[in-house]
Amino acid sequence: MRSALFRFWDGDVGYSFRTSPVAMAAAAVALICIFCSVFAGFVAPHNPFDLTTLELSDARLPPAWSDGGSSKYLLGTDDQGRDILSALMYGARVSLAVGFASVVLSVVFGVGLGLLAGFYGGWIDSALMRLCDVMLSFPAILVALLIAGVGRALFPDAQDSLALGVLIISITLTGWVQYARTVRGSTLVERSKEYVQAARVTGVAPLRIMRRHVLPNVMGPVLVLATIQVATAIITEATLSFLGVGAPPTSPSLGTLIRIGNDYLFSGEWWITVFPGAMLVTISLSVNLLGDWLRDALNPRLR
C-alpha cells in the first residue's frame, strides 16, 4: 500500500497534482468538508438535532461578530435555536452520503451496460442506446423529482434509511446514462484493437475479456466523469430537498437547511440560508475543480 502511494506521488499524475495550486487547494477544501461531515459527532460544537439541548430563547441569533450575536454560536442559530455551524456539518454528511452513493451506483450500472453495448453490439447495443435516448429526453431533475415524489407518497411513514434509499435511486436512474454512453464509445474503439483480437483467438471468454482487458482501458474517462458527477449529484439532492421531496426532516441535508432559511431571508435573518448555500457552493466547486484537474492529468494532450 505504501509503495503504491509512493509510485502515485512520483508518477505523472502525482507530479501534475503537486504542481497545480488549484488542485491542491481544492483537495484541501474537499478533505476538510468531508472530515467535518464524517466526524460531525466529534467536531461539531453542538448536536443540532438533539431536542433536549435546544433553547427557543436562542432562536434566530445572528453570527457571533454581529450585534446581538453570541460566541456560543459562531454562525448564529436558526428558527429553532439550532447552531448553524453544527447543522452545516450534519447536513453535509447527508448530502455527501447521497451524492457518493448515487454516483457509485450510477458507475456500476452505467459501466456494465456500456461494456455490454459496446462489446457485443447488435440488438443489445441498439436497445440500450435507445433506452439512453429516452432517458436523455427528460430533464434529469424532473425524473428524479417524479421518482422521489412517488417514493415519498408510497411510503409516507418510511424510516430515514428507506427515504434516503429512494432519493439515491432517483438520482442513480438519471445519472447512469452518461457513463453508459461514454464507456460504450470507448469500448467500440478498444474491441477492434490487437490485444482484444488476440484474446479472442486464444479462446478467452468474452466476459473475461471485458473484465480483464477492456474495462481497465476505459476507466480513465469514467473516473473524470464520476468526480464531476459527485458535485452534480449533491446539487440534485439539494434541489430535491429544497423542493420538499428529498431528505426527511429528521435528517436534513444542505438543501433542507436552505429551504428552512429561505422563509426568513427577507425578514433579515440572512445567515440561516446564506451559510448552507455557501457550504453547498464550496463543496461543489472544490469537487468540480478536482474533476477538471483529473481530466487534464489523465489526458496528455491537455497538458
UniProtKB/TrEMBL annotation:
Cellular-component GO terms for this entry: plasma membrane
Main location (coarse class): membrane
SUPFAM superfamilies linked: MetI-like
Taxonomy, superkingdom: Bacteria
Subcellular location: Cell membrane
Residues of the ABC transmembrane type-1 domain: 92-291
Gene Ontology biological-process entries: transmembrane transport
UniProt cross-references to Gene3D superfamilies, sorted A to Z: MetI-like
Alphabetically ordered keywords of this record: Cell membrane, Membrane, Transmembrane, Transmembrane helix, Transport
Family: Belongs to the binding-protein-dependent transport system permease family.
Name of this protein: Binding-protein-dependent permease
Species: Polaromonas eurypsychrophila
